[in-house]
Amino acid sequence: MLSLLRPLLAVWLYLLIPGQGRHRYNNGFHYQDITNGNGNGNGEIYFNGVRLHVESPQLSVSATRGSTVTLPCHYRYEPELNTTRRTRVKWSWLPANTINAHVSSAANGRETEVMVAMGNRQRSYGSFRGRVRLRRSAPGDMSLVINELHLNDTGRYRCEVIDGLEDESVTVELELRGVVFPYFSQKGRYHFNFLGAQQACEEQDATLATFEQLFTAWEEGLDWCNAGWLADGTVQYPIVVPREGCGGVDLAPGLRSYGQRHRLFHRYDAFCFSAAVKGTVYFLEHPSKLNFTEAVQACADSGAQIAKVGQLYAAWRLMGLDRCDAGWLADGSVRYPIAKARANCGPSEPGVRSFGFPPQHQKFSVYCYQATLV
Ligand SMILES: *[C@@H]1O[C@H](CO)[C@@H](O)[C@H](O)[C@H]1NC(C)=O
Ligand SMILES: *[C@@H]1O[C@H](CO)[C@@H](O)[C@H](O)[C@H]1NC(C)=O
Ligand SMILES: *[C@@H]1O[C@H](CO)[C@@H](O)[C@H](O)[C@H]1NC(C)=O
């Protein structure tokens, strides 16, 4: 009887306790049962004042693209148990691009499964298939190990331990270290609908930035007065120095938001996010300046490829690439990376300088990308 009432009771407690359910939805109660001993053959386990705790020492983890990351999670019983119990573990996640910072967590997208494990059996799903495992370095260690981290693996992961009727969970945010850059089309400003913006970022070896990523970039000084799509379908731009034409002087510095725009019909620029690349981006030493076709060929001749915009930004931000020579990139734009600002190399702050998309017969240098280290 009690076992039937319990879920109902849990819902009531959940509603009554303010602040519950934001990051942990520990329903916070001790289960007393008198009808059964341990286990009733249905995989349900009844407790005598024993409580299941699921914990993570880190609420957020930051990693680099392509690396292996561990999202910590472990469980224990209080008081400690002598016998081992049959527990199920489920890792699920909310991709960063479905997390909308402006609505409550309950209104966000549904979590999808990453992996489930019971005993020694485990199963992984979707793009995580074959890429994840549980660490199991100690009893109760259910930390999730993800290999070959993708740009789009960021988001909120939930570690849920199910022991019969007890069900506790904890969430861990996964972030990637990287760089946000504004991007517009060769065809002009405010050209991309949402899908176009997504594709444009992917073509630059990047992905649409999340709200958190743009916010972090703004905190680090990104000031850009053209609105761009973000991964959650909103359109925003970061302003450090308030001014006319960029939301006005009366608004405090921050992200200016147009909110959700129509994904098909509305057109803007894009904010892309790129993280460390495996391999190197370098300035090609070449006896003469090159037009665009020659530039593509020159990189190929040296066993590499012409670099993409996301790769140049990542190399500038994460590897300190610094070169005061304008070079072609794969999208037909011409740019150069300045890590230490100096005279005759653009503005007084570090940055990637852009010449836009010059006619392709004009002559510049070129930046190449080599996938494997030479
Ligand atoms: C667990 O084992 C210890 C000795 O190893 C014993 O003292 C204790 O009573 C046991 N606890 C339970 C709940 O069985
Ligand atoms: C995430 O990125 C990987 C590789 O970069 C790709 O194969 C996968 O389809 C992407 N997943 C989603 C949901 O976009
Ligand atoms: C670049 O120069 C080559 C000759 O070296 C020429 O064949 C090619 O058409 C030029 N490309 C462009 C885009 O002007």
Helix and strand topology:
Blueprint: H1 2-16, E1 51-55, E2 60-63, E3 69-71, E4 74-78, E5 88-95, E6 112-118, E7 121-124, E8 132-134, E9 144-146, E10 155-163, E11 166-176, E12 178-183, H2 194-203, E13 207-208, H3 211-219, E14 228-229, E15 234-239, E16 254-260, E17 269-275, E18 280-283, H4 292-301, E19 305-306, H5 309-319, E20 327-328, E21 334-338, E22 351-354, E23 365-370
Parallel strand pairs: 2-11, 14-17, 20-23
Antiparallel strand pairs: 1-4, 3-9, 5-6, 5-10, 6-7, 8-9, 10-11, 12-17, 13-17, 14-15, 15-16, 18-23, 19-23, 20-21, 21-22
Bound molecules: 2-acetamido-2-deoxy-beta-D-glucopyranose (3 copies).
Residues 291-294, 360-361 line the site of one 2-acetamido-2-deoxy-beta-D-glucopyranose.
The biggest sheet, with number of strands, parallel, antiparallel or mixed sense and barrel status, is: 6 strands, mixed
Relative helix content: 10-25%
User: What ligands does this structure carry?
Assistant: 2-acetamido-2-deoxy-beta-D-glucopyranose
CATH topology of the largest domain: Immunoglobulin-like
User: Low-confidence stretches at least 5 residues in length (pLDDT < 50)?
Assistant: 1-46
Q: Could you state the order of secondary-structure elements as H and E?
A: HEEEEEEEEEEEEHEHEEEEEHEHEEEE
Strand order of the largest sheet: 2-11-10-5-6-7
Textual characterization of the structure:
The chain is an alpha+beta fold. It has 3 domains: 51-176, Sandwich (Immunoglobulin-like), CATH 2.60.40.10; 178-274, Mannose-Binding Protein A, Chain A (Roll), CATH 3.10.100; 276-371, Mannose-Binding Protein A, subunit A (Mannose-Binding Protein A, Chain A). The protein is built from 5 helices and 23 strands. The chain has helices at residues 2-16, 194-203, 211-219, 292-301, 309-319; strands spanning 51-55, 60-63, 69-71, 74-78, 88-95, 112-118, 121-124, 132-134, 144-146, 155-163, 166-176, 178-183, 207-208, 228-229, 234-239, 254-260, 269-275, 280-283, 305-306, 327-328, 334-338, 351-354, 365-370. A 6-stranded mixed β-sheet has the order 2-11-10-5-6-7, with no helix packed on it. Strands 12, 13, 14, 15, 16 and 17 form a 6-stranded mixed β-sheet that branches. Strands 18, 19, 20, 21, 22 and 23 form a 6-stranded mixed β-sheet that branches. One 2-acetamido-2-deoxy-beta-D-glucopyranose binds at residues 291-294, 360-361. Residues 127, 150, 152 line the site of one 2-acetamido-2-deoxy-beta-D-glucopyranose.
